[in-house]
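Hello,

I think I submitted the glutamine job twice by accident. Can you confirm which output corresponds to this input? Input:
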Amino acid sequence: MDIDSLLGRATERLAQAGSASPRLDAEVLLGHVLGVDRTWLYTWGDRAAPVYERARFEALVAARAEGHPVAYLIGEREFWGLALTTSPQTLIPRPDTETLVEVALELALATRGHFLDLGTGTGAIALAFASERPGWQVTGIDRVEEAVALATANADRLGIANASFLASDWFSALAAECFDVIVANPPYIAESDPHLMLGDVRFEPASALVAGEDGLADLRCLVESAPRHLLPGGWLAMEHGHDQAERVRQLLQAAGYRDIASRHDISGRQRVTLGRMAG
Ligand code: GLN
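Support: Only one job matched these inputs. Its output is below.
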């Protein structure tokens, strides 16, 4: 069977299984198995697919049809143009979260400074920022040891030398260290949110997604504890759910932050809220 027909059949199967992007999923999985990019698949569509690779591809398509996220099946996801290794121990980096990187880059105009990413997972936000601001010292922390190892490996593979990672439950391992910018994409989904039963999130670690009855437990904790780790004038910027912006602004206000604002993500939803300490 040639590559075109293989992709056509897989696309049909994934569409029936309910994937929102069946053709793209099939192309990414086949490209991974053959070690080629999607352009190659278009160019060489009439070539026969080798039997061994075809069997591996069919196995991946079957797993995808059961709902397993493509990023876990191929072990990789691109974020901010960086190819990051992923693992089921961490959240899959999402395009929404690039908004948080943009916000941080707009804030951090000095050539040097200290940046902290809380709950770094794959290291996505920390590495994106570090790659854009080589003069900054970037620290990423995660409570999960496997995430720290993964983020460190991602930094090494990408050759990003100004980011380091350590295990810490939020600020617990940081002593009195202070930062110019603190960012976080914490868990923010409410326990009872039906969204948790759909799509990729079913396969992601609940500890990276779920935050108490109202989804605000971790955001609240960050707002309250960040001031002890922010330099004068330092910023805290957090990703949150599309309907949480107002409550996060209220939390920041109650805790004495200034210059509080929210920013939209690529789908036009208020996704990031930030505030700063008095200068
Ligand atoms: N944005 C993710 C989702 O809704 C959740 C990420 C998070 O909880 N930090 O699938």
